[in-house]
Amino acid sequence: MALVACPTGSIGTLEHHDARAGIDAFPEPIAENVFYCGFNAESSFGAWSYLIQRPDDEGGNVLIDSPRFATQLVKKIEAMGGVRTMFLTHKDDVADHARFGERFNCQRIMHADDGAGGRGMEIVVTGGDPFEIDTDLVAIPVPGHTRGHMVLLYRNKFLFSGDHLAWSPHRNSLIAFRSACWYSWTEQTRSMARLLDYEFEWVLPGHGRIHHDSPIQMRKHLERCVEWMKVR
User: Fold this and answer.
1) What are the tens digits of pLDDT across the range 101-118?
2) Which residues partner with 111 through β-bridges?
3) Please, which pLDDT band fits residue 206 given cuts at 50, 70 and 90?
4) Partners of 139 in the beta sheet?
5) What is the distance between the alpha carbons of residues 66 and 116, in angstroms, rounded to a whole number?
6) In whole angstroms, what is the distance from residue 220 CA to residue 130 CA?
7) Exposed end of the chain (fewer CB within 10 Å): N or C?
8) Cα angle vertex 45, ends 68, 76, to 5°?
9) Which long-range contacts (C-beta less than 8 Å, at least 24 apart) are formed by 8-13?
């Protein structure tokens, strides 16, 4: 799976390995109907992408950020119901979004402040207010890492956080990436504090570690993260 997921093909082995086992393992189940796509794209700096599998009458499948447009993955996603909506957290992790959009005829969503208008997005989010995609999906603008960064909240349980928020085993807490803040650390700190208005149990980032905890504990971790950011 590591060989398949590596965005630059940089993992070498001394023994022959049948890559089919790794290929067939993706999309990899994380919890319930949420999957990690694998096939990380070099053009997205190796960022992770995710798939939410939903029945058509619940809005259909959602692809969060873009993996490589690899034939094996595309066929697997097709067999799982395709893609109805593609949510792009920010401009760094768009990779092969256009090819996925063409293949699945999906609605791509991105914020105007990250150049969505020039990328042919079907749905362009503007301003700083949350945007309800449907009853269980909310796009939340969180400027900071980039001007138009957004996170996606699913069922008030899964937070797809892009490059805004991740888990640090070293600090045993949630963190933001101070050295990879391309727009404004002050704005990112404010954006992080606004997430305290929401409840979630999972943080699923593009970079960094995934984390699962109770809503109460997740809030405590987030509060610590905000306080840490204020003094960085």
Assistant:
1) 999 999 999 999 999 999
2) 125
3) very high
4) 131, 152
5) 15
6) 22
7) C
8) 20
9) 8/42, 8/46
Query: ω into residue 29 within 30 of 0, thus cis?
Result: no
Place of tokens 């803040």: 181
Match 């807490």 to its residue by tokens: 173
Residue with tokens 């792009």: 88
Q: What is the three-state SS of the chain? A: CHHHHCCCCCCCCCCCCCCHHHHHCCCEEEECCEEECCCCCHHHCCCCCEEECCCHHHCCCEEECCCCCCHHHHHHHHHCCCCCEEECCCHHHCCCHHHHHHHHCCEEEEEHHHCHHHHCCCEEECCCCCEEEECCEEEEECCCCCCCCEEEEECCCEEEEECCCEEECCCCEEECCHHHCCCCHHHHHHHHHHHHHCCCCEEEECCCECEECCHHHHHHHHHHHHHHHHCC
Fold of 2-10+26-230: Metallo-beta-lactamase; Chain A (3.60.15)
pLDDT of residue 7: 82
Task: Please tell me the pTM assigned to this model.
Answer: 0.93
